[in-house]
Design brief:
The complex is a heterodimer.
Chain A: H1 6-11, H2 16-35, H3 44-52, H4 57-67, E1 72-75, H5 82-87, E2 91-94, H6 103-106, H7 116-126, H8 131-135, E3 138-142, H9 146-158, E4 163-166, H10 174-195, H11 201-224, H12 234-243, H13 249-268, E5 280-285, H14 294-301, E6 305-310, H15 315-318, H16 329-340, H17 352-364, E7 369-375, H18 379-394, E8 399-404, H19 411-426
Parallel strand pairs in A: 1-2, 1-3, 3-4, 5-6, 5-7, 7-8
Chain B: E1 2-8, E2 12-19, E3 22-30, H1 35-44, E4 50-54, H2 58-65, E5 68-69, H3 72-83, E6 89-93, E7 98-103, E8 109-114, H4 123-132, H5 158-170, H6 175-194, E9 203-206, H7 213-223, E10 227-228, H8 236-247
Parallel strand pairs in B: 1-4, 4-5, 6-9, 9-10
Antiparallel strand pairs in B: 1-2, 2-3, 6-7, 7-8
Helix pairs in contact in B: 3-8, 4-5, 4-6, 6-7
The chains are: A alpha/beta, B alpha/beta.
C-alpha cells in the first residue's frame, strides 16, 4: 500500500485535485516512454523509483531536512554554485520547468510568446503544482536571457519575495570575470545570512568534493555513451541528468557509479540499446528540464540513439571539474567562480567556446548527425544555431535544426523531420 | 508480382499499384476521420504482394499491419525522380506541410526544409481561402487576375488571413484580385523556405497544390526558372513508396 502524501501536499498549499491529475499524466508518460524501452540496465531501477517518488519521498526528505534547520535553495541554472549551497548545509533543488502546466495562468503575467521553460516555472507556481517551489527558502534567478531576467521580477512577487538574482555577465573578458567573482562572493554572503552559518574552509572543501564527485560520475556516464552500441539509451541518460538537479548528491553519485559499473560490463559483453551501427545523434541547444523527454523519445522511437547532450541538462552541467586545491575560503570562492565561467551558455558574446564543445563532443561520441534543439522564443540558442550549423557541416556531419516547445501538437511533423534526417544519414549523406 | 505504395496524407490518401514495374492503378480518397478503413478499402481494390506506406499517417499501417514505412520526403524524392530523371529540387505543397527537398546527382536527399507547425503556406491555407471566396479548390488558380490591384494579404496566419479576406470583400474588392493576393502570400512564404536550400535545376513542383496553375506561374516568375509539373502531381509520394518497395 503506497504511503498517502495528501496531508503533506495540503500543508505545502498544492492544488490537490490538479496535482493528482499531473501525477497521473506523468506516470502514464513515463510508462509509455521509459518502462517500455527494451534491454534497460538494472541500475535504472533506482531512477524509476526516484521518478515514482518525485513529489513524494524526496519532498518528505526535504521537509524533514528543513525541520532539522537546513535551508532549501531553488535554482534554475547551472551557473548557480552548488558548492556554496552545500557549504552552508543547504539543499540545492533544480525547480520544475519542463512540462506544459498552468500556461493560461502564466499568460496573465507574461507574454504569450515567452519560451516554454519560463512559462512552465510560472505555471507550476501559479497552478499550485510544484511541491519543490513550496519548500524553498530562497529561489536563485540569474540573468541568462531577457525573458528569465524579467520573469524573475514577477516570480519574486508571486513567491512573497523569495527570489535572489545573480548577474551573469555577457562577456568573458576581465571585467566580466571580475563582475562574476563579486557576484559569487555576494551569493556566499547571502547564503550565510539566510542560514546563519559561516562557510568554513573545511565545509567548503567537503562541499567541493561532493559536487566534483557528482560531476565525475556524470562524466563517466558520458564517456560510456561513446561506445558503439551505446550501453545506455539517450532517454535514460537524459533522465539521469535531469534527476541530478534534485536528488541528494551523495546518494545520486553512488547510484550513477553503480550503474556505470554495470554499463562497463555491458560494453565488455557488447550489449547495447540499439544494434551496432544504428545512427548516433548528438543533441545541442536549449536545456531539457524534467519531464521534457519529447525529442529523445522521437529520435529513439525512430531507431537511432542519442549519444550526448551539449546542453545545461547534460555536458554543460558536468563538463569541467573544480580545481579544489585551494587553501583559503577566499581562494576557494574565486576558484568556484572561475570554474562556472567555463560553462559556454548562449547568453555570452562571443561564444566560440560552445562551438568547440559541439565539435569535440561530436568527434568523441562519434555522432552521425547533430540535431540542434531550441525552445521556441529561446532567442540566444535560436540565433546560435546558425554558427552551430556551420561548424558541424564543416566536419561533414549532417545537421538538423528544430524549434519546438512542450506541447504535443507538432509531434507528427517532428517525427517526419527526424525520420527524414535519419534516412539521409542512412544513405550515407554527408554535409 | 504486385507492389503497392500508399501515401496517407492529412487531406487525401493516395494509392499506387505496380505490376512488373508498370503502374496499373492509382486511387485518391479523402482521408476523413477513419483513415485506417479508407486504407483497407483502397488495398482491397488490388491486393499487393508487398506494400510500403508513407505520408503523415504512415505509422497507422505500421502499427496495425506491420507495414514498412518511409518518410514522404524520401518517397516524393524517389517518385519525382522516376518521372523527371534530372530533378534536383522539389517543391512539395501538401495539405498541412510544405517541403523543399534537395537531391544530389544520384537522386539521394541531401537537404530538406519544412514549414513550421502552422498552416501558413500550405494547401490547407489555399483550401480555406478558396472556400471563403466561393471557388472550387481544383480551379482556384485559374480565376486569379493577373494584376495585383495594389492589394496585399499580409497575415501569414490562416485565421487572420481569412478575416483580412472578409474585410477586403466588404470593401468591394473583386474576388479575382483577392485570389491573386492570396496566391502571392503563399508564394512569399514558400520562397522564404526555398532560399534556405541551394536551388538546382530541374525543379519539380509536387503535391496537390501543383495542380494550381497560378502558383506554378508565380514560382516561375520569382525563381526565373522553369518548373516541371507532372499531369498527376498527387501521385509522386505513393509512386515513390511503391518503387522503394520494389527495390528493397
Amino acid at each position: 500500500m503506497p504511503k498517502d502524501y495528501k496531508m503533506m501536499w495540503r500543508d505545502l498549499d498544492l492544488n490537490l485535485a490538479a496535482h493528482e491529475g499531473l501525477l497521473g499524466v506523468l506516470s502514464d508518460a513515463y510508462t509509455n516512454i521509459y518502462t517500455s524501452q527494451k534491454d534497460r540496465p538494472e541500475g535504472m531501477k533506482y531512477f524509476d523509483f526516484v521518478i515514482s517518488e518525485v513529489h513524494s519521498l524526496r519532498i518528505e526528505e526535504i521537509v524533514e531536512a528543513r525541520k532539522q534547520g537546513r535551508k532549501v535553495i531553488g535554482t534554475f541554472c547551472v551557473y548557480v554554485p552548488e558548492e556554496l549551497i552545500l557549504a552552508v548545509d543547504g539543499v540545492d533543488i533544480g525547480l520544475c520547468a519542463g512540462a506544459e502546466v498552468g500556461s493560461d495562468e502564466a499568460e496573465k503575467y507574461i507574454p504569450r510568446n515567452t519560451c516554454a521553460l519560463i512559462k512552465a516555472f510560472m505555471g507550476f507556481k501559479l497552478a499550485g503544482l510544484c511541491p519543490y517551489i513550496q519548500t524553498t527558502d530562497l529561489i536563485v534567478g540569474e540573468t541568462t536571457c531577457d525573458g528569465k531576467k524579467k520573469a524573475y521580477e514577477i516570480f519574486d512577487e508571486l513567491t512573497g519575495g523569495k527570489v535572489y538574482v545573480m548577474e551573469i555577465p555577457n562577456k568573458k573578458d576581465e571585467d566580466g570575470i571580475t563582475l562574476w567573482r563579486n557576484e559569487v562572493r555576494r551569493f556566499a554572503d547571502r547564503l550565510e545570512e539566510l542560514t546563519g552559518r559561516k562557510i568554513s574552509l573545511e565545509k567548503l572543501k567537503e562541499a567541493s568534493r561532493i559536487v566534483n564527485e557528482k560531476r565525475k560520475a556524470l562524466q563517466r556516464l558520458s564517456l560510456l555513451r561513446a561506445f558503439d552500441p551505446s550501453p545506455v539509451s539517450g532517454l535514460d541518460a537524459l533522465l539521469i541528468n535531469q534527476v541530478s538537479f534534485y536528488d541528494d548528491p551523495v546518494r545520486f553519485t553512488a547510484k550513477v557509479s553503480e550503474l556505470c559499473d554495470e554499463l562497463d560490463e555491458r560494453v565488455r559483453r557488447r550489449i547495447g540499446v540499439a544494434g551496432k551501427g544504428s545512427p548516433r545523434i548528438l543533441i545541442s541547444g536549449s536545456p531539457m528540464a524534467i519531464p521534457n523527454w519529447k525529442l529523445h523519445a522521437i529520435i529513439e522511437g525512430s531507431g537511432a540513439t542519442v549519444v550526448g547532450e551539449e546542453s545545461c541538462v547534460g555536458e554543460r552541467n558536468f563538463g569541467t571539474l573544480l580545481h579544489d586545491d585551494f587553501s583559503s575560503i577566499e581562494e576557494g570562492v574565486q576558484k568556484i567562480a572561475d570554474r562556472y565561467m567555463t560553462i559556454n551558455c548562449a547568453c555570452f558574446t562571443p561564444n566560440e567556446g560552445r562551438l568547440k564543445d559541439i565539435v569535440s563532443m561530436a568527434k568523441r561520441l562519434k555522432a552521425d548527425g547533430v540535431i540542434h534543439y531550441a525552445l521556441q522564443f529561446c532567442t540566444p540558442y535560436m540565433m546560435e544555431s546558425y554558427k552551430a550549423k556551420k561548424v558541424v557541416e564543416a566536419m561533414g556531419v549532417p545537421f538538423l535544426r528544430i524549434e519546438t516547445d512542450y506541447s504535443m501538437e507538432d509531434m507528427g511533423q517532428l517525427k517526419t523531420r527526424v525520420e527524414a534526417f535519419l534516412e539521409m544519414i542512412g544513405n550515407g549523406v554527408s554535409a | 508480382l504486385k507492389i503497392g505504395g500508399i501515401d496517407i496524407g492529412s487531406r487525401y490518401i493516395k494509392y499506387v499499384l505496380l505490376a512488373d514495374i508498370h503502374l496499373v492503378e492509382f486511387q485518391r480518397r479523402e482521408t476523413g476521420y477513419n483513415p485506417l478503413s479508407v486504407c483497407r478499402e483502397l488495398l482491397d481494390c488490388g491486393k499487393p504482394d508487398k506494400l510500403v506506406a508513407t505520408g503523415y499517417g504512415r505509422h497507422l499501417l505500421e502499427i496495425h499491419d506491420n507495414i514498412e514505412t518511409i518518410t514522404e520526403i524520401k518517397a516524393v524524392a524517389r517518385g519525382a525522380r522516376a518521372v523527371f530523371p534530372h530533378c534536383r529540387t522539389i517543391i512539395d505543397i501538401g495539405g498541412q506541410d510544405t517541403k523543399i527537398i534537395s537531391l544530389n546527382e544520384d537522386g539521394t536527399v541531401i537537404n530538406f526544409e519544412m514549414n513550421d507547425r502552422c498552416a501558413a503556406g500550405t494547401g490547407r491555407f489555399l483550401e480555406i481561402m478558396a472556400r471563403t471566396l466561393g471557388y472550387n479548390m481544383e480551379s482556384f488558380g485559374d480565376y486569379c487576375s493577373n494584376k495585383n490591384g495594389g492589394i496585399k494579404v499580409n497575415s501569414l496566419c490562416t485565421v487572420f488571413a481569412e478575416s483580412e479576406v472578409v474585410s477586403l470583400i466588404t470593401k468591394g474588392e473583386k474576388r479575382e484580385v483577392i485570389a491573386n493576393a492570396l496566391h502571392e502570400s503563399i508564394v512569399n512564404k514558400v520562397i522564404a523556405l526555398i532560399k534556405r536550400v541551394e536551388v538546382k535545376d530541374d525543379i519539380v513542383f509536387a503535391g496537390g497544390c501543383a495542380k494550381n496553375s497560378c502558383l506554378k506561374r508565380m514560382f516561375e516568375e520569382r525563381l526565373q526558372r522553369k518548373i516541371y509539373v507532372h499531369e498527376n502531381p498527387y501521385m509522386h509520394a505513393a509512386y515513390g513508396a511503391a518503387l522503394y518497395a520494389m527495390e528493397n
